[in-house]
Amino acid sequence: MRVRRSHRLIVWAACATALAACTPDPPGEDQILASAASLPAPQPGLYRSTTRLTDYDLPQASPQEAAAMRARLGGVAPSVAEHCLTAADAEEGWLALVRGLNEGSCQIEQFSADGGEMAATVACSGPGDTTSRMAMTGTASAAASRMDLHIVQHGPAIPGGEQTIAMTVTNERIGECAAPAPSPGVN
Q1: What gap in Å lies between CA 167 and CA 60, rounded to an integer?
Q2: Which of 19, 45, 65, 91 could form a disulfide with 61, with the two C-beta atoms 3.0–4.6 Å apart?
């Protein structure tokens, strides 16, 4: 039996509509924040944050463009920074981070947290017709956290139009925050 081209288009459109209907709506902010609040609250103190690039690919770029970019990024050392988490910051827990995922041109499409584990999918649009989709999985405890991020970006400024980035961000409590320096007095 031969199917006309116009019938194939109608069948394709019907299938696409049915699949779209199966996609759940993004969770509401209240639902997301309630889920994030179930994560263990971090302790106040001094934390060391380490960001490591674990993978980078330009799957549609020319071999030369991909090799040049990998060579540039291959020497990137992990980024390490220390920051003080105040008692007020610790009390807010994970809520500030989660709110930040849903700001600007980004929208949380999926977020779940259970015990010390979390997972999220975030979609963003950027300048120059760039789009990004990030999948994040992580663990959290009172004194440490780890997030594994997998990001796929599309845009005309990217060689080949697509790049994938994977990174790991770890935070570890390493002690107490330094006492604030005394403010200079007026003589």
Answers
A1: 20
A2: 65
